[in-house]
Structure formats: structure tokens, C-alpha cells
Design a protein that fits this description.
Blueprint (H helix, E strand, L loop, with lengths): L5 H4 L7 E2 L4 H11 L3 E5 L5 E6 H9 L13 H10 L4 H4 L13 H11 L3 E5 L5 E6 H4 L7 H16 L7 E6 L2 E10 H12 L6 E10 L2 H5 L12
Parallel strand pairs: 1-2, 7-8
Antiparallel strand pairs: 2-3, 4-5, 6-7
Helix pairs in contact: 3-4
């Protein structure tokens, strides 16, 4: 089965800024390209940070506060106030940037986004150079796969090549990403694996299990000579 990765859904035409890009130019760039953030890259194309609308808004949030004196301030407040006085991307960006590799599976990418509490991740190669960007919305593209494409992968990759199920033995129907498996498998374990592996196919929203089976191989495990006795002794 094919595992979808970040490289399959990422945007390769990325809007970037340099470390010395002025505040006003950053605002213009984000507005012109209708994006809410941009990776900050150095002369070698390596990602050194990310500057977002949130970073830029500190200048508005903290305007006039240089005349106020506070006894107790948090580190987060100090960082925000420092960005309020920033004039270039180097002063404003969040660094180091949280990045991801292009060969990362989509499931791992989703977890990385959630853990980092960010909306997008710059995609970098092994040398840290920018090759794309992946956002939360990009990870949902996998669910735009046509039903016929999903059905074909389930039949060929899951049933025929992985489980060696004969064509027609198990029927596959897909509607709006929901896969229905029906028919008769040779054994209980085959039916279970068919459902489990189908759930892993990219674009599958849910699996409806209507499978029957010829032989219940669960009984083999129960009949194992190593099964424990009621007294806990073999």
C-alpha cells in the first residue's frame, strides 16, 4: 500500500522573505500573496525562522507601551514587546522554525502540527533548505481522492497483493470516501485484516464491515497448548 507523504500535498511555490526584509515589505508581501505567514530564509535558502501576521500585530498591540512601567512581566510579554519594536524579519520572526521533511507520512505531519501549535510547517531537505510548505488544509487533500481511485487501491493493494484474496471474493464499494466491504473471506483473521488495512488507505473516511468468513481461526489460539489453565499453570 502506498503511504502518502508531505511531498504529495505540499505547496512548492512558497512565498518567502529574507532576514533583512523591512516590516512594511513583509506586510505588503503577505497581503499581495494572500498568505498569513512566510518562511524567512538566508542567502543559501535555509530556513531560519517564520514570520506571521501574529508577529506583525505586536506592533499594534503594544503601541505606546514604552512609557509604561511594569514590575512583573512574563517572558512571553517581553518577547512580544521586543517584536513590537522590530523593523526587519530578523527581529520579528519566530525562531528556530519548526520544520518537517518531505518524506514524512501525513499522519506524522498532522501530529507535528498539533504538537507545535502551528498552522503550517516549512518543508526542508536534509541540508535545511526550503523545498515547500505544508498547511493544515493541505493534509485534508488526501480526502479529495475520487471514490474509484480509493476502490482500486483497496482491491489491488489491500486485497490482491497484501492478503492474496481472489478477485470477486470480497466486494468493494466506495461512496464519499466510505468503504463497504462485503462477501466471504477464507477465515476470520483475513476479514479483520481486510478492514484494518483498508482503514489505512489514503482518503478513506470510514469502513463498513459486512464481511463473513469460512473458518473461525480464533479457535486455534484458544486451543494452543500454551494457553493458561484456570489455576495459572500450564
Amino acid at each position: 500500500m502506498r503511504t502518502w507523504r508531505v511531498s504529495d500535498v505540499m505547496t512548492v511555490d512558497v512565498v518567502t522573505v529574507r532576514e533583512d526584509t523591512p516590516y512594511r515589505d513583509i506586510v505588503d508581501t503577505l497581503h499581495e500573496h494572500r498568505v498569513s505567514a512566510a518562511p524567512v530564509v538566508d542567502a543559501g535558502g535555509q530556513v531560519v525562522g517564520v514570520v506571521s501576521e501574529a508577529d506583525l500585530l505586536h506592533k499594534i498591540e503594544h503601541v505606546g507601551e514604552e512609557h509604561e512601567r511594569r514590575i512583573f512581566v512574563s517572558r512571553r510579554y517581553k518577547e512580544a514587546q521586543a517584536k513590537a519594536h522590530g523593523v526587519t524579519a530578523r527581529d520579528l520572526m519566530s525562531a528556530p522554525a519548526v520544520t518537517i521533511a518531505p518524506d514524512t507520512p501525513l499522519i506524522a505531519a498532522a501530529k507535528r502540527l498539533d504538537e507545535a501549535k502551528v498552522k503550517r510547517l516549512p518543508v526542508v531537505d536534509e541540508r535545511g533548505r526550503l523545498v515547500g510548505i505544508v498547511a493544515r488544509g493541505d493534509l485534508l487533500r488526501v480526502y479529495l481522492r475520487p471514490d474509484r481511485e480509493i476502490a482500486e487501491e483497496v482491491r489491488e493493494e489491500v486485497l490482491r497483493r497484501t492478503l492474496w484474496v481472489e478477485p470477486g471474493q470480497i466486494e468493494v464499494e466506495v461512496r464519499d470516501g466510505v468503504v463497504t466491504l462485503s462477501g466471504r473471506a477464507d477465515r476470520h483473521s483475513t476479514a479483520q485484516l481486510a478492514v484494518k488495512f483498508t482503514q489505512l488507505v489514503a482518503g478513506v473516511v470510514d469502513v463498513v464491515d459486512r464481511l463473513e468468513f469460512e473458518f473461525d481461526d480464533r479457535k486455534l489460539a484458544d486451543a494452543s497448548p500454551y494457553a493458561p489453565t484456570p489455576w495459572g499453570l500450564p
